[in-house]
Structures are given as structure tokens and as C-alpha cells.
Design goal:
8-stranded antiparallel beta sheet, alpha+beta, 638 residues, Gyrase A, domain 2, 4 domains, 15% strand, 46% helix
């Protein structure tokens, strides 16, 4: 499909750039006359083709990210998006943008990071138990595997960071590789030429110069902050060079000048400053923790699951990795370890107490996955809908976190989750100490406390009965219409996500929506810039610019909401998201806020289609009201 699309837009040589929004590929072509529009419209998998705002738009539907990825790979185009071109876009406040950047940089490597950490942790465990010797070849090879990612972290982060900032991934990797080049680490073993900042906290010996400028050599192995800042700077430099260097020589001159500019400046300025900042951050974190390790454990451990739900945990992850680099261990993230065991203790309490077969069947796989640290099934499937068990699990996790803080448990590597994370808390140099018993005690206490409190107090009236239609209330106190639709055959209701005026879908100035090609439904001219969840379900599509969002209900109904037309061009300006991809949302929950007046001032429409994309499976009844309030029924499906 990607090959045919590229061929029918006039070939890769006719493409200046390609990005995507939540439903369509957006090409900027050198000559739109070379595109075979009729062939594209008749292609299987293509809904329609549109031309708007200087873009040649190939409408695909919800799976456009997969098609885009294939188009970029086959066409050899620069992987880019409207958000990444602007370094992350204007995604609400500074903190929200920071979380988005950190998540985008670290998420792609978490699997390998956990895997190598587990290997390193188990290697330390094997030595502690005397199963292998620290001088043996077995230990050395396992240690090499365990260190492979963490030692060369700047190379891996160079790839993900510069990709997030809109630069070329191999340039980012080259910057990271330069930082960990082995020759530069051996130079610092000799006599320094002179010393800078003598007598201060930043006193640094200088072993080499670059064009006469002193270079302060730092150890960048395992470092985090220097490469992220260097990748950001590199992306900016690369974009500037692409604007001035002729196309015929861009392929090699852009990376040539980018590396010549970025790498020396990183060694001279960015690296040392970032390293000092990282050391200060580590010391500040340790200072706060040392004020009261018990209170720190109670606070972080108790709220960890809440942080995860809202994506706020990404704020702690880079701090922990920085502490591992600068301090050799991290005490803060260690306080969260008991949380997953508190969660499965609560799930086990639900499983033992309830007589509802559906709830029992949900609890078993949630408990098993939770043992290995995957708690999403437990949170979203069992404890959070029931409310009390989730609160109890947070209380139990707080107690566990307090024990961890009191016994001085530390994290020595980013490793596995759940039971596989225990070896990560063993000091590779000192072996298993008494602190590991503190960790085990915290796990047991959190688990037992979660189980007992849930068994005694976690289930409300009716939730421990065997009523066939009784299920966790997932609608904030409202009747569970989704479950009723399944069990009684009545209408499944989609409620209005906005307050405003209902207008026909056909009136939208976008043929893909107006024709119903993307789904059947209605459009709303909003009077207030607040979008709430029209149903309870899972966020299955959320474009980074926050102008469009998709849901899938528990019954499989797929709903797409697109705030305004061509609002993707705003690159996230005037939109603030309160949820993340794959989040569980409840009917009426605030999802996105947007500034109607500022969007209109940009000359864009805010008319918002609300469509059921898998409409062929249902018969739709639409509200005949003219004015509607958020939460009123909008569409009923049979």
C-alpha cells in the first residue's frame, strides 16, 4: 500500500515532505499535477483524497500511523511529525511538555533497559549466592550484556532524543558515540595542562584543548542529561542547515557541518554544564530524601500508582537514572517497589471476597500479570473501577514505601518489574545486605495489607454478591449503560463530549468527514472549550497535537472526535490534554481543553465531528436537539 501511495503521488522525487494527523497522510508535493488522484481514491485502504492548505491529503483512517511508518521507510523520507518539527509543540504547560518529551525519549528503550538491568541484577545475585565467581568468564560475559545499554546510553538516547526533536536519528547516534569514545577517557589519566575554577565546586583539570579552547573532559558513559541537551541543540542546528544548504549536497553536507558544530560545543559547553547540573540534581534529590526517608517513602510509594495513571511518573524516571549515574544508586524510585505488590494484594482480596463470576475471571489474570510488575490489568480492570480497592492499594503501597525508606533500600540498576525487580536492589559491589530484607518485608507487608483491607472493607454493597448483571461501576455513579446494552439488548449511548450547537455532519467543510467516509455521527459547534469523555472506555488514538482523540468502549464501539478542521496546523497550540494514550477514561471525565477564540483567530473552524468509525456494525439514532450540553445523550446505537 505504501509503495502504491508513493508511486501515485508522483514518486518519492515529487515529495517535499510528508507528515500525518489522526486520519490522513499530509504530503507537500513539488507538483500536485503529477499525482494520480483517481488511482489513489480507488485504492483499497484509501478513503478519499483531498487538497487543502497547500497539502495533498490521502485519507486513510485510524490506522494512518502504520501506513505513515511504511511510507517513510519505503520512501526514505525524513521521519517527522507536526509536533516533532517544533521540538514537542506547545502542549499546554511547561511540565506537560516536559513529561511528553521524557516519555517519548525513554519509552522506546525501556524494554531493553529492563532486560539488561535484569541480567546485571541476576549476575550480582549469582555471585552473592556463590554460584559463579566474579573473575569467571561467565560473569564477565553476563556483565558485558548487562552493561551494554547502560554504558553506551548516550548512543541510544541520541537516537530517541533527536528523533523526538525532529532531527536525523543517525546524527544523534553519532553525537552520543563521540561522547563515549574510549580514547578521550584514557587521555584524562595523564597530567593536566592546567586547572579551571580552582578552589570552587566546579574545579576541573584540563587535559586537551580544541582550537585553543579548553575542553573539560567528563565521563559521559551512562549519562542522560548531556546527550538530551546535545540532541536538542543538534536538531536545531540541522534544521537551520537544511534551509541554507542546496538540495544537491544536503545528504552529506548537513550531517558534516552539524557534527562539526555540535560535537565540539557539546564537549566544551553543553557536556560539562549538563554534568554539573546532573550532579547538583542528584545531591538535591538525596538531600530531600535524607530529610525523612520514611516520609519520602510514604509519599512517593503511596502516590506512585496515581502518578502512573496520569503519566507523571516520567518526571521521576530521568532523575533516578541520573542518580544511578552520579551517585551509583537511587533511593527515590526504590520507594515505589512495593506498589505493585500492594495492588495484587488488593486484587486477591477482590477475588476471594466477590461472588461475581465476571469479576473473579478478571481478577485471576490481573493478579498473575501483577506478580511480574504489569499492573495495568489490575488497576483498570479491577481496583480502579471498584474505587475502594484502589485507594486501599495506595495505602498499602505507602506503608511499604515507608518501610523501604526506613531500611535504606536503594536501586542499583533499572531492571525488571515485579519479582524480577528484586535483584536490581542488590549492590553489585557489596552483595546482598540487610537492606534487601527491608525490601522483602515491605513487599510482604504491602501485599498482606492490600489483601486484608480489601477483603474487609474494599467491596461495597452488592459488589460481593453473585448478581449476574452486577459489575464494577465505571461511570462515576451513573448506571452502567454499556453493560446494560450487552446484557439486556438496549441502546448503547454515546453522550455529548461538548456543550454547543449540533450541526449536520454533512455541513463540515471537509469532504472526508462530511461524506461519512470516516464514520457516521454528528458535528458540534462548541460553546465552551472543554471536551469530556462521551463514554467509558480506553483512549486508543491521541494525536500528539491534542486536536483529535479516539476511544474504544468495552463493547468494541470505536469513536473519533476531531476538534475543528485543519487544527493540526496549530502544532498543539491552544490545546491542553489531561489524558494519555491507552488511558482508561470514565464518562464525563475532562480530556482536553482548547481555546475557541484563539483557534478562530487563526482562521480555523472549531466545528467538531463526533463519529462512530465502525458504524457498519450498528444502527445509529442521533439526537434531534439543536442545543446540547456536555453529558446529554448524543447518539444511541443498536
Amino acid at each position: 500500500m505504501a509503495k502504491d501511495i508513493i508511486e501515485n503521488v508522483g514518486g518519492k522525487e515529487n515529495v517535499n515532505s510528508v507528515v500525518h494527523c489522526i486520519t490522513r497522510l499530509r504530503f507537500k508535493l513539488k507538483d500536485e499535477g503529477k499525482a494520480n488522484t483517481d488511482a489513489l481514491k480507488n485504492m483499497e485502504g484509501v478513503i478519499t483524497v483531498m487538497k487543502s492548505g497547500g497539502q495533498y491529503q490521502v485519507v486513510i483512517g485510524n490506522h494512518v500511523p502504520d501506513v505513515y511508518k511504511a511510507v517513510v521507510e519505503i520512501g526514505g523520507f525524513q521521519n517527522q511529525s507536526p509536533v516533532e518539527e517544533d521540538g514537542g509543540g506547545e502542549k499546554g504547560g511547561v511540565f506537560a511538555r516536559f513529561i511528553d518529551i521524557i516519555a517519548s525519549i525513554f519509552t522506546p528503550i525501556l524494554g531493553v533497559l529492563a532486560a539488561t538491568g535484569m541480567i546485571k541484577g541476576f549476575n550480582a545475585l549469582f555471585v552473592t549466592f556463590g554460584w559463579i565467581d566474579a573473575t569467571s568468564g561467565t560473569f564477565q560475559i553476563l556483565n558485558a550484556i548487562g552493561d551494554s545499554l547502560f554504558y553506551f546510553f548516550p548512543i541510544f538516547l541520541g537516537y530517541t532524543a533527536i528523533k523526538k526533536f525532529g532531527g536525523s536519528t543517525f546524527i544523534g547516534m553519532a553525537i552520543g558515540a563521540a561522547l563515549v569514545h574510549p580514547t578521550l577517557t584514557t587521555i584524562s589519566a595523564g597530567e593536566p595542562l592546567f586547572t579551571l575554577f580552582t578552589g570552587s565546586t566546579f574545579q576541573s583539570p584540563v587535559f586537551i584543548t580544541f582550537l585553543g579552547v579548553p575542553v573539560i573532559l567528563m565521563s559521559y558513559a551512562s549519562s542522560v542529561i548531556p546527550i538530551i541537551l546535545a540532541a536538542w541543540f543538534g536538531a536545531k542546528v540541522e534544521k537551520g542547515l537544511r534551509k541554507v544548504i542546496p538540495d544537491v549536497v544536503k545528504t552529506f553536507l548537513v550531517p558534516f557541518f552539524t557534527l562539526l558544530i555540535v560535537v565540539p560545543i557539546t564537549f566544551i559547553v553543553i557536556g560539562p554544564v549538563a554534568t554539573w547540573a546532573g550532579n547538583l540534581l542528584g545531591q538535591a534529590t538525596l538531600f530531600i530524601y535524607n530529610l525523612s526517608p520514611i516520609l519520602a517513602g510514604i509519599f512517593v510509594g503511596g502516590l506512585w500508582q496515581v502518578f502512573v495513571i496520569f503519566g507523571l511518573h516520567w518526571g521521576l524516571v530521568p532523575i533516578a537514572i541520573n542518580n544511578l549515574t552520579t551517585l551509583g544508586s537511587d533511593p527515590v524510585l526504590a520507594t515505589t517497589f512495593a506498589a505493585s505488590f500492594a495492588q495484587i494484594g488488593a486484587v486477591l482480596g477482590v477475588w476471594v471476597k466477590t461472588k461475581q463470576q465476571k469479576l473473579k475471571s478478571l481478577s485471576i489474570p490481573a493478579f498473575i500479570s501483577g506478580i511480574f510488575g504489569v499492573t495495568e490489568p489490575a488497576i483498570y480492570g479491577v481496583t480502579l473501577p471498584l474505587k475502594k480497592p484502589f485507594i486501599i492499594s495506595c495505602i498499602a503501597a505507602a506503608v511499604g514505601g515507608g518501610i523501604i525508606g526506613a531500611t535504606g533500600v536503594k536501586l542499583y540498576m533499572i531492571g525488571g518489574l515485579g519479582i524480577f525487580g528484586i535483584p536490581s536492589h542488590i549492590n553489585p559491589e557489596g552483595g546482598a545486605t540487610m537492606t534487601i530484607w527491608g525490601l522483602i518485608i515491605s513487599i510482604v507487608v504491602a501485599f498482606v495489607l492490600g489483601f486484608i483491607l480489601t477483603y474487609l472493607f474494599g467491596l461495597g454493597k452488592g459488589q460481593d454478591s453473585d448478581s449476574k448483571n452486577s459489575t464494577p461501576n465505571q461511570n462515576n455513579g451513573q448506571p452502567n449503560t454499556s453493560q446494560t446494552a450487552v446484557s439486556q439488548g438496549s441502546n448503547l449511548t454515546v453522550y455529548s463530549p461538548l456543550s454547543g450547537e449540533i450541526v449536520p455532519l454533512s455541513s463540515i467543510k471537509d469532504q472526508a468527514f462530511a461524506s461519512g467516509a470516516l464514520g457516521d455521527g454528528v458535528a458540534i459547534e462548541p460553546s465552551e472549550g472543554k471536551l469530556v469523555a462521551p463514554v467509558s472506555g480506553k483512549v486508543t488514538a491521541l494525536f500528539p497535537t491534542n486536536h483529535a482523540i479516539g476511544f474504544t468502549t468495552d463493547e468494541g464501539v470505536e469513536i473519533l472526535i476531531h476538534i475543528g478542521m485543519d487544527t493540526v496546523e496549530l502544532n498543539g497550540k491552544y490545546f491542553t490534554s489531561h489524558v494519555s494514550m491507552d488511558s482508561r477514561v470514565e464518562k464525563g471525565q475532562l480530556l482536553i481543553e482548547f481555546d475557541i477564540q484563539k483557534i478562530k483567530a487563526e482562521g480555523l473552524s472549531v466545528t467538531t465531528p463526533v463519529v462512530v468509525t465502525n458504524r457498519a456494525q450498528y444502527t445509529l439514532e442521533k439526537s434531534n436537539q439543536t442545543q446540547i450540553k456536555a453529558g446529554d445523550w448524543l447518539i444511541k446505537l443498536k
